[in-house]
Design goal:
The complex is a heterodimer of chains A (167) and B (427).
Chain A lengths: L1 H20 L3 H21 L3 H26 L12 H11 L1 H13 L16 H11 L1 H22 L6
Helix pairs in contact in A: 1-2, 2-3
Chain B lengths: L2 H18 L2 H16 L18 H13 L11 H18 L9 E3 L2 E3 L10 H21 L3 H32 L4 H7 L3 E2 L3 E2 L2 H4 L1 H14 L24 H26 L10 H6 L1 H26 L9 H29 L3 H31 L7 H30 L2
Antiparallel strand pairs in B: 1-2, 3-4
Classes of the chains: A mainly alpha (167), B mainly alpha (427).
């Protein structure tokens, strides 16, 4: 299990790094696919089977495919990209800038007790039935709020993309 | 790990291989002969090994050999060598893996152990198919892009747009189905369909959910990139689309991948809408209970059907010259047919005479269900071929109109109707 985790985590990091490092947009998008698939694998390791499948269907199958489609449709060349003279310096600065956040994460992570309830999940944790019950019984309001937000974004996109009617 | 577990797993994997990869040459042959039939010509039927033609099936193997031994030519303008090389592999592997969750038979019980009869014993069911169908489009998109020419790029752009727009309707059609079936596990779905409506109609998906069935069938034609949705290939518009620059076995992987994807789509359609491995009106339990009657029926029917089939072979493959080597084929085929009949009749006869254990019954029922699945799969594949040679290709704007303005609203409305019906009348 540890080896699988390490491989998937390294793949995710590799994909994420290549997404921001490559100058070719298609390569960046492919790096993103690698990250998304590696994350799906991590979900599978955590026994979240539904999340694992949905991650692949929605992110890898639809969103990044759409991204690639847009990149190809607009035919973005390397020469179209803006010049980034201080790219690596900026990356370094931003890496330093999120150190406090990292500290917070690590602190939260290490302050958790693994002795008591590390094994709180049952075998069918993360399958559709459990997840559905959880979402639609305990978290119905946030769920609906998020879906409303998505609906607003959807309608907004349609309104923005619509042809202007001639007055 | 015991010996039964290992052998069942191996049998399942071999079955999955046979139904997907092994079906490819047969489907190529079916495609060509049916195309010939529809266009009032013969299709390939001359290729033979020592007079054995099998109605032209040998041609497919000759074509496979040709693809393997052809020069693997790569044009000089292709810069992205790695992506160019990996694209056909993505198409092939994801098509192949998507077949792996199709159940060939009901859960097999041997002694105290229960086995899921799938290539991969997972219960993700339709989600697995959707995920891999989504991934397979990367192969097409990347293949077209890395070919570095305008026609191929156009092909991959078309493929991307098409898959994204049709996957939405496909998923929504599946949602209404899943509300009806109440499970995503394909074995549960098939067992649901073994029931009867009003006592005499099989409760198949196409009768329970006709709208979802039609939408799903249309969208899976688009997912498999088959005519009338093969605008990504569009040989009369954009040369060969995404695979223009591919040759030899790289093209072969695209080619075989298309047929494997078609077979996987057919398998899912059979599983979701046509009762899967169920023999109509006869569920797994009925089969097990009345196994004696089933055996007697087979013993009577198999020789009769074989006699008809042998007569058909003799009628169509008889040549006037006595030393014509093509006459050998009929002779040998009939011998094989007779041997098979004797074997099956003797085996079943001994079962009838000596009685059978529960395990033997279970295995025999599983074999019968696998055969049923194979027949249904072949018929559904035939529908794919039939449609290809009947309908012309959609124009790009017609395709998008159909996807977004017709299929999407209908599938959403279908979800509402289904959900209301389920809540009102109970599942």
């Amino acid at each position: 299990m540890d080896i699988i985790f390490l491989v998937l985590a390294l793949l995710a990091l590799f994909g994420a790094t290549s997404t921001i490092m490559f100058s070719n947009t298609v390569h960046s998008a492919l790096g993103f696919v690698v990250t998304v698939l590696a994350l799906a694998g991590l979900y599978a390791l955590l026994n979240a089977t539904f999340l694992f499948m949905v991650q692949i269907i929605v992110y890898a199958g639809a969103i990044i495919a759409l991204l690639l489609f847009v990149i190809m449709f607009l035919n973005i060349q390397q020469s179209h990209a803006p010049k980034e003279p201080n790219k690596y310096l900026l990356m370094l600065v931003s890496a330093i800038a999120i150190v406090p956040f990292d500290y917070l994460l690590f602190k939260a992570f290490y302050s958790m007790s693994f002795a008591g309830d590390a094994n709180i999940t049952t075998k069918d944790f993360g399958n559709i039935k459990m997840l559905g019950n959880e979402l639609f019984k305990n978290w119905i309001l946030p769920f609906e709020a998020i879906s409303l937000l998505l609906l607003v974004a959807l309608i907004g996109a349609v309104v923005l993309a619509r042809k202007k009617e001639r007055a | 790990m015991n010996i039964i577990l290992i052998s069942v797993v191996i049998v399942n994997i071999i079955l999955a291989l046979l139904f997907s990869l092994g079906a490819a040459p047969i489907l190529v042959w079916v495609e060509r002969r049916v195309a010939g039939f529809i266009q009032d010509r013969l299709g390939p039927n001359r290729c033979n090994i020592a007079g054995f033609r099998l109605g032209g099936l040998i041609q497919s193997f000759a074509d496979m050999l040709k693809l393997v031994f052809k020069e693997d030519f790569r044009a000089g303008n292709i810069k992205e060598r790695f992506i160019f090389r990996i694209a056909p592999v993505i198409v092939f592997v994801s098509a192949f893996l998507s077949f792996m969750v199709m159940p060939f038979a009901d859960d097999l019980v041997i002694g105290t152990q229960t086995f899921i009869m799938q290539g991969l014993p997972l219960d993700f069911g339709v989600l697995w198919f959707l995920a891999l169908a989504g991934l397979s489009v990367y192969g097409i998109i990347l293949g077209g892009w890395s070919s570095n020419n305008k026609y191929s790029l156009l092909g991959s752009v078309r493929a991307g747009a098409q898959v994204i727009s049709y996957e939405v309707s496909m998923t929504l059609a599946l949602v209404s189905l899943l509300i009806t079936y109440g499970s995503i596990h394909l074995v549960d779905i098939v067992n649901f369909q073994s029931g009867l409506i009003f006592g005499f109609i099989p409760a198949w998906g196409i009768i329970m959910q006709p709208v979802a069935a039609i939408i799903f069938i249309i969208t899976s034609f688009a997912e498999a990139n088959r005519t009338p949705f093969d605008i990504a290939e569009g040989e009369s518009e954009i040369v060969g689309g995404y695979h223009t620059e591919y040759s030899a076995m790289k093209f072969g992987l695209f080619f075989v991948g298309e047929y494997v994807a078609m077979s996987a789509s057919s398998a899912l359609m059979v599983t979701l809408f046509f009762g899967g491995y169920n023999i109509p009106w006869v569920g797994t339990d009925t089969l097990k209970e009345h196994f004696d009657i089933v055996m007697i029926a087979i013993i009577v029917l198999l020789p009769l059907l074989s006699y008809k089939f042998g007569g058909w072979i003799l009628k169509n493959n008889v040549w006037p010259k006595a030393d014509d080597k093509r006459n050998n084929e009929s002779k040998w085929l009939i011998r094989i047919l007779v041997m098979m009949n004797i074997f099956v009749v003797l085996l079943l006869g001994s079962f009838l005479f000596f009685g059978v254990s529960a395990t033997t019954t279970n295995i025999a029922v599983a074999i019968m269900q696998v055969a049923t699945f194979a027949i249904k799969l072949l018929l559904m594949n035939f529908v794919f071929v039939w449609v290809r040679w009947t309908l012309p290709r959609f124009r790009y704007d017609q395709l998008q109109d159909l996807g977004w303005k017709v299929l999407l609203p209908i599938s959403i409305a279908n979800i509402f109707v289904t959900a209301i019906a389920i809540v009102a009348f109970g599942a």
